[in-house]
User: Which sequence fits this backbone?
């Protein structure tokens, strides 16, 4: 990496990394060069689409007469994920004809559902990495004066096991990791990577004929959906803190309806119009509860206790004790409905169910039950379609 490969986030200088796509392209370039030169090289350079040139060590070299295999080690920089420090291999072989073929080997996933960049059955190597790999190998082919064909196989030996810790199984990518990257560079703490994943998951649902889905911020919502509401299908999209952007994605994709299901500690913020619920963006839990408690006619001492509370569990317990919980939550849900409708516009129906671990369902918007039944029906249809396939 170079000195320019840093980014400032929250007043901290953080080191960028490079993608699995860059690793694959660099490994393919190194393997092709060794195939034509007939000697080992220990470092390879790669210009990324972002304009940052990488200088990468070449590892685990295996040279044969008409075939070379080698690896590049992934470095995620200061934003490590499950792929950090994995070895990405490329095997380049001479073949008959003049074409360059590209495929995935061990540990690279396969596409099993519509809606992703590649067709069903293809290796999960996205279009930018594919272009990077082809360009790198083509240049080495010309440089070596070779006019025959080449086979390029990308593999990630630990990919199948690591993929279980990623979104791949939910996205319909089976058997391994994806070879990813649009810029070739990993930027630390990238919110865009998260929102892109949300969009991709929604896009997959939409392209498989689904017009409705559940939206859950995280595991609490996902567990409640399964355990309390009896849902066991595939129409739930995890949105993390990005409620507003997820709604925008749904509008863009032509979805008809979304049912947002989440814990009160997160969704209470939506009643104040907060659509990114990360605590770094806003923490208005006490203020929202206090204002709605005051509107419910509570005495000043109760409102003061709400403002002094630390958790939403304390607040709901206090309101329950004062016999105000139902009234306050009715008021809160009306504001949540207002802001969700405003964000979804005329084309997208957005309803919500709010729960707590102690109380179960605390409140729901007026059309939540109806939308729940619509999505349940679509979930059954999705399940039957999957069984037929």
Assistant:
């Amino acid at each position: 990496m170079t000195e320019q490969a840093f980014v400032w986030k929250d007043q901290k200088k953080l080191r960028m990394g490079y993608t699995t796509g860059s690793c694959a392209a660099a490994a393919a370039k190194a393997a092709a060069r060794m195939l034509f030169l007939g000697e080992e090289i220990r470092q390879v350079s790669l210009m990324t689409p972002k304009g940052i040139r990488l200088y990468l060590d070449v590892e685990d070299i295996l040279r044969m007469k008409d075939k070379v295999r080698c690896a590049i080690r992934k470095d995620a920089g200061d934003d490590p994920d499950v792929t950090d420090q994995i070895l990405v291999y490329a095997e380049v072989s001479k073949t008959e004809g003049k074409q360059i073929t590209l495929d995935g080997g061990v540990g690279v996933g396969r596409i099993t559902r519509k809606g992703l960049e590649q067709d069903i059955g293809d290796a999960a190597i996205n279009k930018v990495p594919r272009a990077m790999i082809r360009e790198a190998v083509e240049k080495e082919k010309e440089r070596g004066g070779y006019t025959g064909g080449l086979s390029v196989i990308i593999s990630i030996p630990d990919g199948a096991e690591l993929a279980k810790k990623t979104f791949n199984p939910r996205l319909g990518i089976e058997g391994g990791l994806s070879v990813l990257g649009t810029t070739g560079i990993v930027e630390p703490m990238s919110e865009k990577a998260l929102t892109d994943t949300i969009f991709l998951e929604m896009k997959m649902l939409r392209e498989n004929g689904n017009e409705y889905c559940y939206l859950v911020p995280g595991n609490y919502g996902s567990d409640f959906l399964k355990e309390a509401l009896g849902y066991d299908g595939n129409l739930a999209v995890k949105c993390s803190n990005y409620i507003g952007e997820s709604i925008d994605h749904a509008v863009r994709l032509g979805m008809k309806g979304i049912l947002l299901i989440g814990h009160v500690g997160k969704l209470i913020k939506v009643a104040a119009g907060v659509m990114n619920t990360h605590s770094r963006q806003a923490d208005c839990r006490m203020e929202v509860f206090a204002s709605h408690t005051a509107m419910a006619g509570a005495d000043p001492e109760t409102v003061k206790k709400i403002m002094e509370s630390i958790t939403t569990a304390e607040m709901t317990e206090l309101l329950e004790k004062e016999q105000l919980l139902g009234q306050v939550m009715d008021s809160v849900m009306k504001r949540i409905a207002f802001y969700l409708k405003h964000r979804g516009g005329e084309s997208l129906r957005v309803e919500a169910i709010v729960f707590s671990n102690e109380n179960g369902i605390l409140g729901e918007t007026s059309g939540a039950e109806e939308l729940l039944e619509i999505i349940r029906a679509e979930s059954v249809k999705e399940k039957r379609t999957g069984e037929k396939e």
